[in-house]
Each structure stands twice: as structure tokens, then as C-alpha cells.
Write a structure and sequence with these properties.
single chain; four-stranded antiparallel β-sheet; 70% helix; 8% strand
Length: 784
């Protein structure tokens, strides 16, 4: 029993020790696990971690607040929207009260289309701003993913330690959330307004297009009752009120357009001011140096009336063409002002009958404009239009002839008369059958077409006078006072300007007939349509542009000399050879630049161009050697300068003065008046005798006999004194006297002296005459 107790105690002690070891091991494992959890697990954070999370959240809210606040670009967007709203309100108000004038409707359509584009851009900008706000909101929402910050927010006990930090954070959040809500509301309101304005613009465009369609060429759809069926319901006492209301509308529309086009009009005024200064400076130079009387020889009709009026004519003509879609009041005022300026230019130059007919035409045009702008369509207006059309037809048949005789360009007046009479006849017919808008449009176009061709004719003459003034002033500054053939030069210069004048006239007529936009669109489609030949794709527009640029380059290189005072004067002695060389280089540069620009504008791919150049190289090798040889020789002559324009040369069996040098040929004026054309390649391959390479003087000689009682010393004195008194002889170089035979009372002499090579024969003749007189006065016999 005792043994069993001892054994029990021993086993119990053993089990206790074993359990203690096991428990200790388990505790050690638990401690190790907890240590590993604290080191690598983020669920438990320190105060420093919490402070960093709060600071990070504050930075996010701060940056979000700054980004949410509207910056300068957004304020600029809102300002643009405000200006668009003002424009739209003015156009919509004008549409309600204005006459269905084609000019105004065209301007409304252009402005509405621009407003529509502006609204599209503004809508895109607002959507972009809304997207930015959504992205900023996501940045704030992403703060919820910060576990440390969320743990701190949920731990109410530990959160009390950061009460102040949480208070600041809450204020930032409230301010950011408030600004976000406010700005999102603002953007949503702006977007709603933009959508509403887009709808209003669409409706207004439909209305404008409908009114413009009423002006289409169609006599079958009545716009108003026929003239014999009309019952005018407008009370007379309301006419004055209607005129006042329409004047206000037209003034507002024109004032808007002035602001809308202010930049272009200021630019036009600036360049006209420069032109005014330039012309005035040239005229002042001529007057100061005593050449004022010579201006009368140039047969100026308008520049001799002062500079201001011609400049106004140029500016107003340009304003008419560059403001095709201006309001009717704006454009018709420009037209009337232009015609008024012409009155002062025509005064004391036109005959009394022509002047009265011109004033009568202006009166009809003014009445037509007033009726079209300010009188409501009714019985009064329609009968007044018919009366003006009848007077216009009579004017075109009878009175217009007096205007034609006074104008510089008479060829266009025939077509202008036909258009004027034809449009007035059509206007009466359309008015009778109820197509009032079309009738009014045709009437206005008829008078504008006639008055505009008069104004453009004056414009052309003024431009030619300015060019002639520039040429003459430049020549005077170079010391060349001789008058040139200005009439022939004017005929040469006016040809390209007539093309420009014709284009200006046609687009004004087409714009007033409301067909310019459709013509331009159709022509643009035709010119931009791609065409394919083999592997080459091109458009007609690129081909046309290519040839236009080539034509302009050739025209410019031909006329560039005129602006430096150079003209084709074959008898001119004081030729500036250095200037001629510079002009030749300038012409070469203009031509090369023109061809390069034409190739670039044509849009021809470089790989296709290389193929073309390869084919051209084959052509050169087969048959264009001489052409290329002459071209390269011309370039060598321009830069090497063995001969220059004005030089007197001898080439092979030909001699004469160099008249002009081109890239392929050189023209020589022979003494007998013939013009010799020599390829440039021949010039480089032959010996050239250039008498004027260094100067314009030539050594000439005279042989004669003297009979009588004298001695050589006395003969030498007589010869020297006689030549010294001849102005044509260059006495800066001494003359030379040689005796070929001497006997009692008989002497044979050879005299050599220098004179201008351009007046060789004249100088020799004068020298013989003066020597004969001098020897005769001494009692000696002179024979030559």
C-alpha cells in the first residue's frame, strides 16, 4: 500500500512537470505568433499612423477644394456664354420685327451658324468641366479605402485624442462638399441654358432658311396676293410707328455687325492710312522738287483732286466685297456713301447732262433702299417699287449712255446695262404675281450692279494712277526726268486688274441675288472632288491653283520692274545696270518661288513628282537639250554679268543695245530698228564685244584735210579748243591728233576722242561742223 502511494505521488509529480513544460511551450508559441502579428499586420496602428492618415486626408480635401474652384478659363467660358446669349437675343429680336430682306437673312444665317458652332464648343467645355468635377469627387471618395483613417473614425475612444484634427478635417470636408454642390449646380444650369439656346438657334435657322427659300427663283408659289388683288390693311397712322421701329431694329443689327467685324474694318483702315501716307509722300516729293506741272502730263483724273477721296473709293469698294453678308442697312449705307464720294470726284469733270443723270440714279437708289428697309410690305411699297422699276428701265434705255462716255472702262457697261434693264423687268413681273421678296431683291441687285460697275471703273483708274505716280517718282529720284509713254503702259497694266475687277463685280451681284453661297459650294465640291488617272489622284482645284500660281508668278516677274521705275525705253542712256541686275535676280527668284509654291499647292506627292522629273530627264536627254542649255545659260548670264541691259555689244555679225534679258533669250535693238532675239546658249558660246562693260564711252575718230598757210601747232590748238567746247565730247580723257601727211599748205589729220556710245553719230557730226567753222574763221580750207 505504501509502495502504491509512493508510485502515485511520483506519477503525479511527473505528469505535473510534463504539463508545465507543454503549457510553457504553448505560451511561447502564442507569444511568437502575437509578435509576428504586430509586426506585419496593419490592423493595429500607432498615434503617428493616425496623424499621418488625417494629414493625408486633409491634403486631398485641400487639393480637391482648389481644383473644384472655377479658374480663369472657366470664367472666360462663362463670359463667352454671356456674349453668345447677347448675340442670340439680338438676332432673335431682329428676326421678329425686320423685313424679310435677303441681305439681313443672309447675315442672320451666317451669325446663327456661328452661334451654333459656339454653343457646340461651349457644351463640350461644360461636359469637360463636369467630368473634372466627377474625377475630383472620386479622389475624395477614395479616402474610404484608407483603413487606418476608417479604423480611427470607428474607434470612439481613441478618436477623442484627435478631436482638434478631426474638427479641422470636418470643416474642410464641409467646405469642399458645399463648393462641389454649388459648382455642379452652376454647370448644370449652364448646360441647360446651352441646350435651350441650341434649340432656339435651330428654330431660328429653320425660319431664316424658309425666308431665304421664298427668295428663290420660282414664280409659281405665291408669297403675297397678286398686285391687283391686294387689300392694304395697314393703317396710315401706323406707318410712322413702323418706320421708327424698323429703324431701331436695323440700327441695332448694324451696330452689332460693326462690333462683330471691328477687327477687319480697323485693319482695312490701317492699310488705307498707309496707302494715303505713301501717295501723299510721293506727291509732296514731286511738288517740293519742282515737278508738279509734270503730273498734269500723266493725265490724272482723280489723284489731282486730292488723295483722300481716291483712298475712300478704294476702301469702300473693298468694304463692299469683303462684307458680302453684312446687314442691309450697313451695306446700303456703304454703297450710298461710296456713290456720294464719286459725286465729288465727278464734279467739274463730267458734263452737266451726265452729272444730272448720275444724281437721278442715286435718288432712285436711295428711295429703293428706304422702301426696302423701313416700309412694311403692302400696297404702298409694292406700287413704289413698280414705279422705280419703270423709271429704271427708261434710264437703262435712254439716260445710261451719258454715263458710259465718262468712264474709263466702257466694255463692261454694255453688260451692266443689259443686267440692269433685265432685272428691273423681272422685278415688275414678280411683284405683279406676288413674289415680293424676290422682286425687292432683284430691284436692289439691278441698281447695285449698275452703280458698282461705275465705282469699280473709277477704282481701276485710281489704281493705275497710283502705279504711274510710283513709276514717275522713282524715275525722278534716279535723275531721269524724261516722260514715258504712260498710255501704252496703262493699257499693259490694266489687263490683270480687269480680271480682278470682273471678279469683284460678279460676286457682289451673285451675293445680292442670294446665289453666291450655293455657287461657291457647288464649285468647291467640283474642285475638291478627287479624280484618279492610273495611280495618280488629283483634284481639279489643285490643278487650277497650280496654273493660277504659275500665271501670277509670270505676271509678277513681268511687272515688278515698273515699281522700281524701269520701263521699256530703248533710247534711255542713264540705265542703272546694277539695278537691272538686281531685277533680273528678283525675277528669277519670283519665278522659282512661284513654281515651287505651285507644286506644293497642287498637293502632288513627292514620289509621283520624282517619276515626273525622271520622265522630264528622259525628255531633256532626247530633245530638250537646247531649252535647258538656254535656261542654264540665262542664269549664268544673270549672275556672271558679262552683259547687262543697256550694254552696247557686238556678237558675231550682229550689234546693238541689249533691250532685255530673259531666262531663255536675250533681245538686242539693232541700230536700224530691228529687234534681234538671240538664245542665251549662243551668247555664252560666242565672242562678245561689250562696248559699255566698264563705262558708256567710246573712242571715235575723224579724218580730214587742211589747206592753207598754217603750222601744225596752230592746227592742234584749233582742234583742241573746238573739241573742248563740244558738250557731247568727253573731255575728261584727252583727245589724240595724228598727222598722216604734211606738205606745204596741205595737212592730213586723224583725230581720236571719247564720247557717249549712245550718241556716237551725233557727236561725230557736231565735231565735223564745229571744226569746219573754226578752220574757216582762220582762213583755212577744211575737207573731211
Amino acid at each position: 500500500m505504501i509502495i502504491h502511494k509512493k508510485t502515485f505521488y511520483f506519477l503525479s509529480l511527473f505528469l505535473l512537470l510534463l504539463f508545465s513544460q507543454f503549457n510553457y511551450a504553448q505560451q511561447q508559441k502564442t507569444v511568437k505568433k502575437e509578435s509576428r502579428g504586430r509586426l506585419f499586420n496593419d490592423t493595429t496602428a500607432t498615434d503617428s499612423d493616425y496623424l499621418m492618415a488625417i494629414e493625408k486626408a486633409g491634403e486631398v480635401l485641400e487639393s480637391a477644394y482648389n481644383d473644384i474652384d472655377f479658374a480663369g478659363d472657366t470664367r472666360h467660358l462663362f463670359g463667352e456664354m454671356k456674349r453668345t446669349e447677347s448675340k442670340l437675343d439680338l438676332i432673335l429680336a431682329s428676326l421678329k420685327g425686320a423685313n424679310p430682306n435677303v441681305r439681313n437673312q443672309q447675315m442672320y444665317r451666317i451669325v446663327l451658324q456661328e452661334i451654333q458652332q459656339e454653343l457646340e464648343e461651349q457644351n463640350k467645355a461644360i461636359n469637360a468641366k463636369n467630368l473634372d468635377l466627377e474625377n475630383i469627387k472620386k479622389r475624395v471618395i477614395d479616402l474610404r479605402k484608407d483603413k487606418t483613417l476608417i479604423t480611427l473614425i470607428k474607434d470612439t475612444i481613441r478618436r477623442k485624442q484627435f478631436k482638434k484634427e478631426f474638427g479641422d478635417l470636418r470643416k474642410r470636408y464641409v467646405a469642399t462638399d458645399s463648393l462641389m454642390t454649388k459648382n455642379q449646380t452652376t454647370l448644370n444650369n449652364k448646360k441647360r441654358l446651352t441646350v435651350q439656346r441650341k434649340i432656339s438657334v435651330s428654330n431660328a435657322l429653320v425660319a431664316v432658311e424658309g425666308k431665304l427659300e421664298k427668295s428663290g427663283i420660282s414664280i409659281f408659289n405665291k408669297e403675297y396676293p397678286s398686285l391687283w388683288q391686294i387689300n392694304d390693311s395697314v393703317a396710315k397712322k401706323r406707318v410712322k410707328h413702323n418706320i421708327g421701329a424698323k429703324i431701331i431694329i436695323e440700327e441695332n443689327v448694324s451696330a452689332y455687325y460693326l462690333g462683330y467685324k471691328a477687327g477687319g474694318l480697323i485693319t482695312l483702315c490701317f492699310f488705307m492710312g498707309l496707302l494715303f501716307w505713301y501717295i501723299s509722300r510721293n506727291i509732296k516729293y514731286l511738288n517740293t522738287n519742282g515737278y508738279a506741272e509734270n503730273l498734269q502730263l500723266l493725265n490724272f483724273k482723280y489723284l489731282n483732286r486730292g488723295v483722300l477721296l481716291p483712298i475712300l473709293v478704294i476702301a469702300l469698294n473693298i468694304a463692299v466685297v469683303t462684307n458680302l453678308y453684312a446687314p442691309a442697312l450697313f451695306l446700303e449705307l456703304i454703297q450710298l456713301f461710296l456713290l456720294g464720294v464719286l459725286i465729288f470726284l465727278f464734279k467739274n469733270q463730267w458734263s452737266g447732262v451726265a452729272m444730272r443723270n448720275w444724281l437721278f440714279l442715286l435718288g432712285l437708289f436711295f428711295a429703293l433702299c428706304f422702301l426696302d428697309l423701313f416700309i412694311t410690305i403692302g400696297l404702298l411699297q409694292r406700287f413704289a417699287f413698280v414705279a422705280i422699276n419703270v423709271l429704271g428701265i427708261r434710264y437703262g434705255l435712254v439716260q445710261i449712255k451719258t454715263l458710259k462716255e465718262e468712264l474709263y472702262i466702257k466694255g463692261f457697261f454694255k453688260w451692266a446695262s443689259i443686267i440692269f434693264i433685265g432685272l428691273n423687268i423681272l422685278s415688275i413681273l414678280y411683284n405683279l404675281f406676288g413674289r415680293v421678296s424676290l422682286s425687292n431683291m432683284l430691284s436692289i441687285t439691278a441698281f447695285i450692279s449698275l452703280t458698282q460697275i461705275v465705282a469699280l471703273s473709277v477704282l481701276l483708274k485710281i489704281i493705275l494712277e497710283i502705279i504711274l505716280l510710283q513709276i514717275y517718282t522713282t524715275r525722278v529720284k534716279r535723275g531721269i526726268e524724261k516722260m514715258f509713254d504712260y498710255e501704252s503702259l496703262s493699257d499693259t497694266l490694266k489687263k490683270p486688274f480687269i480680271i480682278v475687277i470682273s471678279y469683284m463685280w460678279l460676286i457682289v451681284i451673285a451675293s445680292n441675288l442670294n446665289i453666291w453661297e450655293s455657287l461657291r459650294g457647288s464649285l468647291g465640291k467640283l474642285l475638291s472632288h478627287p479624280n484618279t488617272i492610273g495611280s495618280i489622284t488629283f483634284t481639279l482645284g489643285s490643278v487650277v491653283l497650280f496654273f493660277i500660281i504659275i500665271w501670277a508668278a509670270h505676271l509678277l516677274q513681268k511687272y515688278v520692274a515698273y515699281f522700281f521705275g524701269e520701263i521699256d525705253d530703248e533710247n534711255e542712256e542713264n540705265i542703272n545696270k546694277r539695278q537691272h541686275s538686281k531685277l533680273l535676280i528678283t525675277r528669277l527668284v519670283v519665278l522659282i518661288s512661284g513654281y515651287l509654291l505651285a507644286v506644293a499647292a497642287s498637293g502632288m506627292p513627292l514620289d509621283k513628282l520624282s517619276i515626273l522629273l525622271g520622265a522630264l530627264g528622259v525628255g531633256v536627254g532626247l530633245g530638250l537639250q537646247n531649252v535647258v542649255n538656254n535656261f542654264v545659260s540665262g542664269i549664268i548670264l544673270i549672275f556672271d554679268k558679262p552683259i547687262q541691259v543697256g550694254d552696247v555689244v557686238e556678237i558675231s555679225s550682229e550689234s546693238g543695245r541689249i533691250k532685255s534679258m530673259g531666262l531663255r533669250t536675250t533681245k538686242i535693238n539693232a541700230p536700224n530698228g530691228a529687234e534681234i532675239i538671240i538664245p542665251n546658249g549662243n551668247l555664252l558660246s560666242q565672242n562678245i564685244t561689250n562696248w559699255t562693260y566698264t563705262d558708256n564711252f567710246k573712242l571715235v575718230e575723224i579724218t580730214f584735210e587742211i589747206n592753207g598757210e598754217t603750222i601744225p601747232e596752230e592746227i592742234n590748238t584749233i582742234v583742241t579748243e573746238t573739241l573742248a567746247n563740244l558738250p557731247l565730247v568727253n573731255n575728261s580723257k584727252p583727245s589724240q591728233i595724228y598727222y598722216s601727211s604734211i606738205s606745204d599748205g596741205k595737212y592730213k589729220l586723224l583725230i581720236k576722242f571719247w564720247c557717249s556710245i549712245y550718241r556716237t553719230e551725233e557727236t561725230i557730226s557736231s565735231a565735223r561742223q564745229e571744226l569746219y567753222v573754226s578752220f574757216k574763221n582762220k582762213g583755212l580750207t577744211f575737207s573731211s
